[in-house]
# Entry
Amino acid sequence: MTRGWRWLLPLTAVPLLALLAYGFRLNPRDIKSPLVGRPAASFALTSFEGQPVTLAALRGKVVVLNFWASWCYPACYEEAPVLERGWRAYRERGVVVLGVDIQDKEEAGRKFIREFSLTFPNAPDPAGKVSIDYGVYGVPETFFIDRQGRIRVKHVSAVTEQVFRDTVETLLAEPAPGG
Amino acid sequence: MLLAILVLLLEAAPAPAQQPARPVNEQELYAIASELRCVVCQNLSVADSPSEMANQMRALVRERLAAGDSPAQVRQYFVERYGDWILLSPPRRGFTLLVWVAPLVAVVLGLGLVALLLRRWTRRPRPTPPPVDAAMSERIRRELESEP
# Structure
């Protein structure tokens, strides 16, 4: 009897330690988005140039939707040239890069675009509605949307050349809707 | 004439598509905002954070309440986009139920253990005093009697 009891006490610590071991291995910044695999929310914004920017107009294309801010240094500054190069390399193949400037001052956003000579459409999101619709919790975050209009990948932190190329190539390899 | 009455009647009927915005109960708004995590903060609710993002989220809560959403629907709106992570209190189901149940279980187990140990300690037999032999008690008695 006493023998059994002596073992029981340390044994109760085992599930607790297992739980801690599991918890400490998780990355607290890696928050799974419930939106991956779901249809991307539609939006209608106006670009810095005054052009309408809607997701509906881009059906059938692979969309790289990037949320950024001019104060997001260094990650947004690292990925801006990557996105611009990706846009130039893939635009002929049916890929659209869209930038959404969030939590920012309009003038600072314009300066950022000039600084990096960005040629892909960029739009401010003054009320933050689009960013909340996409469950954005920081910048930069990038959503890769397939030709069917579904969110396939959510990338948190700066997009690298390789992430851009690999993800876009995978989505381009899939058949277009209706064919 | 009949047509005119019909037009009047139709105009009088409330158009369901253009319902006037419901007045927003500020306490309800605060209650919802304080349950939502401010996504750009450390351990702050949307109600408590002065950040722009929290401000925008509060505006969205207000807008949805004004549009006639129930508090549960507003919460669901955020959960659908951010996952359960957006709620400051983990939901009482699935894996996170553990967070709610484990402390209770630990307290019950601890109390059980304390009760068990207390019972054991109180039941331990007292050490019996060493027997006093007849010569010794005789001596004590005598000394007591000789006392003035």
Q: What stands out?
A: Chain A has a mean pLDDT of 92. Strands of chain A lie at 44-46, 52-54, 62-68, 95-101, 122-124, 141-145, 151-156. The first helix of chain A runs from residue 2 to 25.
